[in-house]
From TrEMBL:
PANTHER family: 2-AMINO-4-HYDROXY-6-HYDROXYMETHYLDIHYDROPTERIDINE PYROPHOSPHOKINASE. Keywords: ATP-binding, Folate biosynthesis, Kinase, Nucleotide-binding, Transferase. The gene is sulD. Catalyzes the transfer of pyrophosphate from adenosine triphosphate (ATP) to 6-hydroxymethyl-7,8-dihydropterin, an enzymatic step in folate biosynthesis pathway. It comes from the Bacteria. Residues 87-98 form the 7,8-dihydro-6-hydroxymethylpterin-pyrophosphokinase domain. Belongs to the HPPK family. GO terms for molecular function: 2-amino-4-hydroxy-6-hydroxymethyldihydropteridine diphosphokinase activity; ATP binding; kinase activity. This is 2-amino-4-hydroxy-6-hydroxymethyldihydropteridine pyrophosphokinase. It comes from Fuerstiella marisgermanici. Gene3D superfamilies: 7,8-Dihydro-6-hydroxymethylpterin-pyrophosphokinase HPPK.
Length: 252
């Protein structure tokens, strides 16, 4: 049996009841829910997210390989009314596979550990409650250490945009200083090739066709790096929205 960590989220209808139904379905499919976190209320992320969310985490024992277990989670989502239409929009139920033993997988079918695990407070907070000593197999830090890193203030970000007008990067740093409390967040332009030790994340704006408009994509196994497609950076509003999503998810 493999030990996995999953995240649950939702903000439509009776989310707590839907979490309970999800746990029941996961067990009915031959898995064992070994441990559950308390349910945590969190603010919505993104302009279209709707009402506040409820989030949780669970440790699940399964005999299935990662790809099949993830398919099973998606089936449970569908059974309970999940529709994948709007990125970071309202949702009845979101089930994410965060960790699968100490395996590292990067395929079309599954990416494990979940690439955004380390940068989302609403994921780390409930996971820390039930698996604080679990070591992230790529970052080689425990969940507790990852939470302490995201809990530091100010949360330091760098932005690196070789394909973006430097003036626009300056404007983004200025916008960040106005949008967020300077005691909470620091955004500066990347200068050195190697990020400083106290950096939370380096945000790279690059020319890539794989990221949808307004969507951010963490690089699966490159620690402390998040990508935004430069193809969508020509629109200052969209770029600010993408940055806002990253920072808000980290602050919680």
């Amino acid at each position: 049996m493999a030990l996995t960590a999953i995240a649950l989220g939702g903000n439509v209808g009776d989310t707590a009841e839907r979490f309970e139904a999800a746990f029941a379905q996961i067990e009915s499919l031959g898995n064992t829910v070994a441990k559950r976190s308390t349910f945590v209320g969190t603010p919505p992320m993104g302009e279209s997210a709707g009402d506040p969310f409820l989030n949780a985490a669970a440790l699940v024992e399964t005999a299935l390989p990662p790809q099949q277990f993830l398919q099973q989670l998606h089936q449970v989502e569908a059974n309970l009314g999940r529709e994948r239409s709007v990125h970071w929009g309202p949702r009845t139920l979101d089930l994410d596979l965060l960790l699968y033993d100490q395996q590292v997988i990067d395929s079309d079918a599954a990416v494990v550990p979940h690439p955004a695990l380390w940068q989302r407070r609403f994921v780390l907070e409930p996971l820390r409650e039930i698996a604080s000593d679990w070591v992230h197999p790529v970052l080689q830090e425990t969940i507790d250490q990852l939470f302490c890193r995201i809990d530091q203030r100010p949360l330091r970000f760098e932005i690196d945009g070789a394909n973006v007008d430097p003036t626009r990067l300056d404007d983004l740093c200025h916008w960040c200083g106005q949008e967020f409390d300077r005691g909470d967040v620091s955004l500066t332009i990347a200068k050195a090739a190697v990020p400083p030790d106290n950096l939370f994340a380096r945000i790279i704006v690059r020319d890539s066709g794989v990221v949808e408009p307004n969507r951010t994509q963490p690089r699966p196994h490159d620690s402390r790096t998040i990508e935004i497609a430069a193809a969508h950076a020509a629109d200052a509003t969209k770029l600010r929205t993408a940055l806002n999503d990253i920072i808000t998810a980290a602050l919680g």
